[in-house]
Amino acid sequence: MLELTKKKSERSLVGLEIEAGSVAAIEVRSNGSHDLAATAIAPLPPGAFQEGEVIDSDAIAETLRATFAENGLPKRVRLGIANQRVVVRTLRLPAIDDPRELEAAVRFQAEERIPMPIDQAILDHRVVGGVAATEDEGARIDVVVVAARRDMITASLKPLRDAGLHPVGVDLSAFGLIRALGGNGSAADDERGHPSTTLFCNIGDGTNLAVANGRSCLFTRVAPAGPEGIAADLSAGTGLALENARLWLAHVGLAQPLEAIEGDPALIAQVRGALERGASALLDELRLSLDFYGAQEGAVAVERIVLTGPGSVIPGLAEQMAPVLGLPIEVGRPAALAGLDPAAAARLTLSYGLALEA
User: Fold this and answer.
1) Residue 175 DSSP symbol
2) Collapsed DSSP state (helix, strand, coil) of residue 303
């Protein structure tokens, strides 16, 4: 759509991500560049949001209403979605130029490859690559297809609308993650400035995984392992409030010897044990995801791993993972968030990508 005039406020968009423990919102104003205008992170009541889905719509709506009002955020939002009722598949199809014919081909293949009734799903697709024609067959294209249950999308949008917000889009959280960190001179580029094939990991209440080359998503998966589960287990085992359990995870970390950490030695040992078990579960999920991705037709070898999200600020996590996975691992932060403290920047990275133009 061509717009000849546009008010300044209409160029602002808020990327919104909801997790089990908090909501994270970031306003970006786009006018040739992307300017960070406002940020907000607010806690959610326990049980309001679980495993990527809305449980208590009223509680989430009240949190959103108060958070947007207190921080002066505009009401135009793009919401990120990541849960087990979103299915992502990469299809290799004959090269089709006509958009309508391509859409029909995607839908036909999706009915066979996606394990949900297509008439109950919302479908979207993006061409991410291709293979040149050979003597044996014509040119082929690789298409990432996203299918989400329609009722889940409706439930996800309800608290936003009840809070008086105006959703302008729902996006796969993995796509926002890639926009925030992939390509354009980010840490995901190689020494020559060419995009490398990277596994992005947003470690939050679960772990959102995306394999990408530059800004092209090749594979994505949501894994259950994450610091929110570790904190919940620690809280149950020690009697700590959940918020305090989260703070203890960051305090103890995986880097320092136990005797060098201030606090009750018995509690510190419990926290370290919980972190080590959680890190092991996360490593298992990453190995499984890399193996599953690598088994796909036309898979390009992953060259590095970039971590973000709340779990990425746990001291020593990246250093413990690298030798096990055999790939270089680094913590990624968008340059636009450099002025924020590390924990806030980590929590807001995915929201930032959701606020950028798709």
Assistant:
1) H
2) coil
Dig out the tokens for 157 from the structure: 């949008």
Q: Which residue has the tokens 């990120």?
A: 80
Cα–Cα distance for residue pair 232/226, rounded to 1 Å: 10
Domains contained in the chain, CATH given: 8-84+151-190+334-355 (3.30.420.40), 86-150 (3.30.1490.300), 227-329 (3.30.420.40)
3-state secondary structure 266-284: HHHHHHHHHHHHHHHHHHH
Give the CA count within 13 Å in the CB-facing half-sphere of 323.
3
DSSP state of 287: H
CA dist 260 to 263, 265, 315, 321, 330, Å? 10, 10, 14, 22, 25
Interatomic CA distance for residues 6 and 11, integer angstroms: 7
d(CA 10, CA 69): 18
- Picking from 238, 280, 275, 227, the residue whose alpha carbon sits closest to that of residue 254 is 275
Three-state secondary-structure class, residue 297:
coil
Separation CA 176–CA 242 (nearest Å): 28
Tell me the residue type at 187.
A
Question: Which pLDDT does position 270 carry in this prediction?
Answer: 94
> What's residue 152's pLDDT?
93
Q: pTM for the full model? A: 0.86
Q: What are phi and psi of 242, to 5 degrees?
A: -55, -45
Contact 66, 152 (CB under 8 A): no
Reading the block at residue 155, the tokens are: 């439930």
CA–CA separation, 150 and 95 (whole Å): 29
How far is Cα 143 from Cα 230, in angstroms, rounded to an integer?
Answer: 36
Are 68 and 40 in contact by the 8 Å Cβ rule? The answer is yes
At residue 8, φ and ψ (nearest 5 deg) are -60, -40
Beta strand segments in 271-328, E? 304-308
Alpha carbon distance 44, 23 (integer Å): 7
24 Cα distance to chain centroid: 12
Question: Dihedrals φ, ψ of 91, to 5°?
Answer: -110, 140
Give the residue ranges of the chain where pLDDT is below 70: 1-10, 32, 130-136, 183-195, 358
